[in-house]
Amino acid sequence: MRKKLAIISTHPIQYYAPVFQLLAKQLKLKVFYTWGEQSLHKYDQGFKQHIVWDIPLLEGYDYTFLMNTAKDPGTHHFKGIINPGLVDAIQDFAPDAILIYGWAWQSHLKALRHFKGKIPVYFRGDSTLLDQQNGLKHLLRKLFLRWVYSHVDYAFYVGTANKAYFRYFGLKERQLIFAPHAIDNARFELSASEEAKALRENLGVGINDILILFAGKLESKKAPLFLLHAFQQLNNPNLHLLFVGNGQLEQTLKDTVKANTINNVHFMDFQNQTQMPSIYQCADLFCLPSQGPGETWGLAVNEALASGLAVLVSDKVGCATDLVDSTVGDCFKSGDIGDIKQKLIALTAQKQTLASMGQNAKQKIQEWSFEHQAQAIVEYVSR
């Protein structure tokens, strides 16, 4: 008999829905979305616009949107998710186990506390210790999080840095199960060469030029301004830099480019999921220079690797330990402009070297798949 699994998640997410579809083939699954139906047309604080994904996120599995009574609904604060009917709805489903994505909202923490000791409580999150600081505030947070995670029976960790985080806050080795962070590798691997070629031509990037890509929210924790300053100092007309996305630093970035008459820096607005493969494939090198605080894994790196791109990331990016080595790119010390410049110069010295790294990248990312993630969950829930 298939086990019944209840999943608590805030809203439909392009990195989770495909996993739910796979789980539903092997488990009796129901997903409880706590933000409510309004999350389908949510305002993204980082991108500064309403986001509606252009790939199906509600097909192939059972789900329900719970009533959210928060005065200011959303995931940006603890009291943005309040569901008076959450416990009753889950109990009506009568699951054999529950999997909760994130604790930092009132209803999610309530569910952790309520179901502890009643059914196995699984947890999924991708936090790291990369922003840890000493002091009283840190000590109080440590005590609080050890209490939070005392309500978790097992945690599905996404990678090395995330595992260290769970261990630090009290979970034992036997409670930790590897379920790799993943994206839709197949969709990003699929060739979009014609679209990519046209995009390079429209940007004015020559066939022998090297295009560096930043794709994501233009916000301080991802440090796009730092990348721009480093790129500017390289002063190499055969290098181009493309920013794809929107956010709080967008105008500052554009003003800086205009004031300094930098002709080889380009901008594109936020692009939806179906457009992203061709954007990655038009580039030669992907760069995520995050400085935090609050950067976790960096799933854009997965997307870049699956698209056949070499990558350069800072040591504040959670996936750096697992996904980035000399065969696919490099890692630099966050905030060290000398280090990122040195790494950029080395990586962009030979276009063919980047192409070889891109081929290695496609191979490396194969094990970090939705299928591997789903199978890990099924195996442990079904025990």
UniProtKB/TrEMBL annotation:
* Family matches, as InterPro entries: Glyco_trans_1, Glycosyltransferase_grp1
UniProt xrefs under PANTHER family? SULFOQUINOVOSYL TRANSFERASE SQD2 (PTHR45947)
Domain Glycosyl transferase family, chain residue ranges per copy: 200-363
UniProt superkingdom: Bacteria
What organism is recorded for this protein? Answer: Pedobacter albus
Look up the EC number in the record and give it. Answer: 2.4.-.-
Protein name, please? Glycosyltransferase family 4 protein
What GO molecular function annotations does the UniProt record carry, in alphabetical order? glycosyltransferase activity
Q: Is Thylakoid found in the keyword set?
A: no
Looking up Pfam families in the UniProt record yields:
Glycos_transf_1
Q: Which UniProt keywords apply?
A: Glycosyltransferase, Transferase
Please tell me whether the keyword Transferase is annotated for this protein.
Answer: yes
